[in-house]
Amino acid sequence: MSAQREDAGLDAVARVRGVREQDDRIGLQLALTEARGLHARAEQLEGMLTEVPTDSLLALTPQELLAHRIALGRVGEAAREAAHEAQTADVVSAEARVRWEAAKTRLAAVERLLEVRVARRRTAAERARAKEADDLAAQRWLRARTVRPEVAR
Questions:
Q1: Which of 36, 105, 134, 138 falls 20 to 30 Å from 149 in CA-CA distance?
Q2: Where are the alpha helices (DSSP H) in the chain?
Q3: What count of Cα atoms within 13 Å lies in the side-chain half-sphere of residue 28?
Q4: How many CA atoms lie within 13 A of 104 on its CB side?
């Protein structure tokens, strides 16, 4: 039986696991990109809150002060939501990393099994060649001995 036919099933498993590992790696990259974006947005909103000038608030009318306070409240709420979304994205990223690492490990196991099988076949082929060479040498020695008995002495 040829090596290709012997390992056809395992090759198919390796291809499927390779595709799954690639999909999980892409998913991890997307999750990390999204998490970075959400963290940047949360930092931007928090920065907006910390950079509000307080000295100019004294010149505002009560209506303007109330509107300013409401606007700052909305920015603060948006900052909290963005921070929460960033934390959720971190959890999703961590889960995506776990899935990718598991898929990578499964793929490596199948690839290692294929390598072991190739090494075993190579070893078996080398043994067969060595046996054949021994048989040929033995036959040559026997012929030489029967053809010229004086050489054997």
A1: 134
A2: 3-6, 8-50, 62-147, 149-152
A3: 17
A4: 10
